[in-house]
Design a protein that fits this description.
Order of helices and strands: EHHEEEHEHEE
Number of helices: 4
Helix content: 25-40%
CATH topology: Aminopeptidase
Strand content: 25-35%
Number of domains: 1
Shape: globular
Largest sheet: 7 strands, mixed
CATH class: Alpha Beta
Number of strands: 7
Structural class: alpha+beta
Distance between the termini: 26 Å
Oligomer: single chain
CATH superfamily: Gcn5-related N-acetyltransferase (GNAT)
Radius of gyration: 14 Å
């Protein structure tokens, strides 16, 4: 498996992997559509997106973006259903964490939902701790995690 930085040719995979994941568990919300339609611009403006490739095929994606000051959000983590629990999600998550740290992040935030037990375990594994929810962009969010860098 190879972890690579986003290029425009991965735009469709970024959207498709996230859309499939969202539809499996929740629904696609307006804020999701906003990010999908502007991912290239967001990367040009400093966001980081990483893609896990398996035999050249995108199987997982993750994004990190500045929230202001030294806080960054980790978001849009999705893996192909057939490739879950093979390390691709953790790989792109760790790449996003490193990217944010290299670009000045002191605190990382993840918004999630308690029903996603595999995600809850992954976030704990890489050092995130639960905090009160302070960002409310998505109806599906009922838990927030933070980690100092």
């Amino acid at each position: 498996m190879e972890i690579v930085f986003y290029r425009p040719e991965y735009r469709r995979a970024f959207i498709d992997l996230n859309t499939a994941w969202l539809r499996e568990y929740f629904c696609v919300e307006a804020e999701d559509e906003k990010i999908f339609s502007s991912v290239d611009q967001m990367v040009r403006e400093g966001a980081g997106v990483f893609v896990a490739l398996q035999a050249g095929r995108p199987v997982a994606v993750c994004m990190t973006m500045p929230l202001g000051g030294d806080e960054w959000e980790i978001c849009k983590l999705a893996a192909d259903k057939a490739c879950r629990r093979q390390g691709a999600g953790e790989g792109v998550l760790r790449a996003c964490m490193a990217y944010a740290a290299a670009h000045g992040a002191k605190k990382l935030t993840i918004l999630s939902n308690r029903s996603l037990t595999a995600a809850m375990g992954l976030y704990a594994k890489v050092g995130f701790r639960e905090t009160p929810v302070t960002h409310g962009e998505y109806a599906r969010v009922n838990v927030q995690f933070e980690r100092e860098v």
